[in-house]
Specification:
By secondary structure, this protein is mostly helical. It contains 31 helices and no strands. About 65% of the residues lie in helices and about 0% in strands.
Amino acid sequence: MTAKEIIAYMESLQNEEQRRILMGFFKTGPGEYGEGDEFLGLKVPQTREVVKHVWKDFPLSEVPELLMSKWHEVRLCGLLILVAKFERLTKRTAAKTPLECTEEAIRGRDEILTMYLKYAERANNWDLVDLSVHKILGHWLLLPTNLSPFPTSPQGGGDPLKIAYKQQVLDELAQSDNLWKQRMSIGCSWKTSQMGDSSWCLRYAEIHLHHPHDLMHKAVGWMLREMGKRCSMELLRDFLSQHAHEMPRTMLRYAIEKMPEQERQYWMNLTSNPSPKGEGNYVSKVIKYAGIPVPDFVELILKGDDEAMYYLLHDRLKRPLHERYEAYNNCLFDDYEDIIDDFFLYLRECGRYPYEPLKRIKKKEAFETWLLNTFRNYLNNRAEAEGMGISSQPNCEAHLTIAGEGGVSDEEKIRVVSQLIAYAHQVFYPRGRFIFLRSLLTMLNKQKAVPNKEMAEALDMSDLAYRVAVYRMKQNVRHFRERLLKGEILRLDAEHRQMADSINCDFMRLYPTLFRIYLECIDTLKTSTAVKDLRQQYLEERGFAVHEQDYNRPIRVRIPAFWEKMNRWMTT
């Protein structure tokens, strides 16, 4: 069928009664947002039936005639034909190269997108936008493209120049004077959120936060709600904590619609100032990863971008990772979020340099599959280790001591601390060991700790990676301590069993023992020179070395005080 034949057929189905209903529903009266729009009175299923029978053989060159029609339903037919043709070019096949990555498919999608943007003003009502934009423009944001005013780069679909062009396309729509183009810029994020990328939604929700039109309030709130459901509720709450007090009420109601009643009331009644925007704001950090395909995160991460890996694990790939975690949930001690933080540190710290395992990935396209398989193997190994790491026979004597009226005895505290230090040293990676030992020595020395930022730089870690490492180290130490206090016997190898026995037998010499282990730990770090230079810097600036003992005033370990201080440290 030609465009003229389709129009004639659809006109033959005209329904006057339904036409009057639709013209009222879509606000076509004077001064209303759909002013002047003309309807045939067809229901959407009727239009879809036409599309179903014609789209495969319908020439793309004929679509503009449908889009220029005065009839609302005919324009919808043209848009749905573009959707069907675009989706056909995104299907995966059994071949080794997915259809979506072939040059022919990329050219075809770019041609459809170009036509869609050229006639964007013809999608002049909310249903025309909402039924097409996420399936064409939204899907295009996640796929390789050859469209760009910039020079061609060998980096392909994840080329930063191509990402900049995609942002430019959406920015032009967002800054347009046309309401429907503006709605396209936020509505396309429905697809990106479905695929786990929250960055597009957050970027354009902020841009349209103070839009004057009610239809944009509904669209932004709707997209935020979908982002929270598909990507991260914590990310939605982070956005609301900054903007709920200034969001239009309709936008806010849509965004929190699926939350529990008590939480909805909290956000609706929030009138205080937002949490300050700044370098530490997670929403602003997520936005910068808008449109980057998963495979191209490899290059970012290997360049030292810890935030990219953290975002990838906690947001972009949260659903598939959580599905794998669920299979092991009953075999693991920790909650999902803590497991993910540990996995983040495992990927970063398990090699001779940060993210060494990523160097072994031969094809970037396989990165997501590699990461999910690595996580599954990590969970399997962790479940086996935690299952085997506890003696089947509890320490009955320890149970009796702890259960006594006097609480935990000094002898039991010494035993727990000795095994805790040895076990932590055994299971932590080198940087984790260093941070743990440094924290204990700082407590014993009663000196102010080196600032986190300087410590992170000395260890060649970003501030984010260092804070995660400290948090998870404390979580794990507290977990090990609770297991020991319950009478469980943690499995130590011969070397660390000897370390625990040595500390237990001569606990009053804990400081020199820890300091010796600490110096050995520094030597295992790739950044040992930077760490030693940092200690020397503090020696020169303050007149003492950070962890070196003052032999004129020997450090004496007071067991109750040290025990309480360590407990407070683990919970801060």
